[in-house]
Design brief:
The chain is an alpha/beta fold. The chain has 9 helices and 12 strands. The strands form 2 sheets. Strands 3-2-1-4-5-6-12 form a 7-stranded parallel β-sheet, sandwiched between helices. A 5-stranded mixed β-sheet has the order 8-9-7-10-11. Bound molecules: nicotinamide-adenine-dinucleotide (NAD). Nicotinamide-adenine-dinucleotide binds next to helix 1.
């Protein structure tokens, strides 16, 4: 309850202690930058894969913050901390969750690309942990999740729904977790099953579009941080809802917000809609 009481902790003893996994990665680095600016959370440990070339180096120097006095570690398995923030890959994140359960830490998982059975396992593990899992931690995208469902319900089946996402050339999974979530939420709002109506790209003589299908198109190019567009195409008009991430900091800020929130929650699996109070 430190945040809610309005106290401004000044030293690490009073701050929420964050363990950042994937600390030398693109997101891990930005999360540590945001933590360093925040008054009520502090970096406690920085962890990477055991064969990372910078193990043992000062994490601040790796990510351009100057010396922080915290060495990059190659293993998570050490006690201490309040919350683990993990942006790595699905296998590593599952190990992080198992560790969080063993050691009583809250968890924020931002990794994408999980298989359905891994999400099922996450649900199971969350009976014994406080965990926020969201494929997109941005405040704007989470508001978008809400409004596209409302729009889909109002416009109904006369409007064709298509999703377009664009990301940088290094992104490994496709479509993005955010695009899939948009598809699933819209399908649910329309009484459809995205597993049945999702159409991933089109090529050749595919025939006319059906009313039910929800198209999914993907772009990978350069250094695009992340863009998602939902098209509602009617006759004589179309409505587009677009979110553009300008930098990774919007995700990093969301992850830190989630960490501050989840430490005060009972065990369970939460998402950013819970963190932001967007659920009815
Ligand atoms: P990245 O490759 O730059 O960073 C991942 C880091 O994890 C790397 O430094 C890697 O060495 C480390 N890692 C791998 N295995 C590990 C292990 N076993 N233990 C500890 N560290 C390990 O990738 P990124 O761009 O930072 O993205 C990471 C993940 O976060 C991806 O799944 C990406 O899609 C996702 N992402 C989510 C959001 C969101 O808002 N939820 C936003 C951006 C990216």
């Amino acid at each position: 309850m430190r945040e809610r009481c309005g106290r401004r902790p000044t030293d690490m003893a009073e701050k929420i202690k964050a363990v950042v996994v994937g600390a030398a990665g693109r997101m891990g680095g930005r999360i540590i930058h945001v933590i360093q600016e925040a008054p009520s959370i502090g970096l406690f440990r920085a962890v990477e894969r055991s064969d990372h070339p910078a193990i043992g180096w000062d994490i601040g120097e790796i990510i351009g913050l100057g010396k922080l006095g915290i060495s990059l570690e190659g293993s998570l398995k050490k006690p201490g901390g309040d919350v683990v923030i993990d942006f790595t890959n699905p296998q590593a994140s599952m190990e992080t969750l198992a560790f969080a359960k063993e050691s009583g830490l809250a968890a924020v998982i931002g990794t994408t690309g999980f298989k359905p059975e891994q999400i099922e396992r996450m649900r199971e593990l969350s009976k014994g942990i406080r965990c926020v899992f969201s494929p997109n931690m941005s405040v704007g995208v989470n508001l978008m999740f809400k409004v596209v469902q409302d729009i889909a319900r109002v416009l109904g089946s006369e409007y064709d729904i298509e999703i377009l996402e664009a990301h940088h050339r290094m992104k490994k999974d496709s479509p993005s977790g955010t695009a899939v979530k948009l598809g699933e939420l819209i399908a649910k709002a329309m009484g459809r099953d995205f597993g049945q109506v999702g159409v991933y790209g089109r090529k050749g003589l595919v025939g006319e579009r059906t009313k039910e299908e929800i198209g999914m198109q993907v772009i990978r190019a350069g250094d695009i941080v992340g863009e998602h567009t939902v098209f509602f195409g009617g006759i004589g008009e179309r409505l587009e809802i677009i979110h553009r991430a300008h930098s990774r900091d919007n995700f990093a800020r969301g992850a830190v917000k989630a960490a501050l929130w989840v430490v005060n929650q009972p065990n369970g699996l939460y998402d950013m809609q819970d963190v932001l109070g967007l659920k009815p």
